[in-house]
Amino acid sequence: MSDLLTVEGLRVDYLTAGAPFTAVRDISFQIQPNEILGLAGESGCGKSTVAYALMRLHKPPALVRRGQILFEGRDVLSFTDTQLRAWRWSEVSMVFQSAMNSLNPVMTIFRQFHDMLRAHGPITRADAMDRTAEMLEMVGIPADRMQAHPHQLSGGMRQRVALALALTLLPKLIIMDEPTTALDVVVQREILQEVLRLREKLGFSVLFITHDIALMAQISDRIGIMRAGEIVEIGTASQIVTAPVHDYTRSLWDAMPILANAAEKGPAHAV
Ligand SMILES: Nc1ncnc2c1ncn2[C@@H]1O[C@H](COP(=O)(O)OP(=O)(O)O)[C@@H](O)[C@H]1O
Ligand SMILES: [Mg+2]
Fold first, then answer.
1. pLDDT under 70: residue ranges of the chain
2. Mutate to test the pocket of ligand 1, among 11, 16, 49, 216 (most ligand atoms within 8 A of CB)
3. Cα 149 to the center of its chain, rounded Å
4. Domain ranges of the chain
5. How do residues 81-92 score in pLDDT, each as one tens digit?
6. Whose CA is closest to atom 12 on ligand 1?
7. 214, β-bridge pairs
8. I need a surface site. Which of 55, 136, 211, 251 has the fewest CB within 10 A?
């Protein structure tokens, strides 16, 4: 099977006053079609830097210094702005930790769907409303909520809206950066179930980023463990949970009592 995404030797520096700081050192991984790859590691290890660089959403002082990002064999780092605009949302989209970073607080939900749809091709208002209704219902939100503003929804509902928005143009890859970190455990579980269900239905790949490796083990097919800007270990979820090779991975498990349990059962795909 050919890779959906290939990342080869990626390095990202922050050019701060004084010496540049290398946040992502030399990272390589692949994501297959329909695969959920988890990227786990402690806060500050460079996960979000990877996510933003992959979508070319990184901004100064961040600079991609080295490496290659191939999406279906196409060289993302050489895309023009026009190519990038066409590519984002339609082929790869992103759900951020806080829906407030994905959603515009002063615009109704419908307006945000409408703007995104219009940016990718001509569409009538009526068709945009139908598509918005369909997507909201797909993530369990009544269609009439499209007239609400984000602040009128609960945190869990906002995150569902962000997920629906990310899925609207049927992208092949969704990058989720701590998508459930701000939510309570019950809502977190519901959203993850939703992601697994939608993946079955629509068949997309996910790069799932979190500092919570227990959560990661429940949703991922493969897991990469990041530390200080590098991937120290990558393998199937069951290998990373039950037979981690790297000391650092083991220490992450040991730091999590809940994982003793998960390790016995192996990664569960029903969350
Ligand atoms: N704008 C920035 N300027 C300078 N350093 C940054 C900036 N953003 C992030 N960093 C640094 O890069 C490292 C990785 O950050 P980040 O990718 O956000 O980690 P994570 O998402 O794993 O918590 C951290 O040490 C952080 O302090
Ligand atoms: Mg982060």
1. 1, 99-100, 257-271
2. 49
3. 24
4. 5-91+173-265, 102-170
5. 999 999 999 999
6. 23
7. none
8. 251
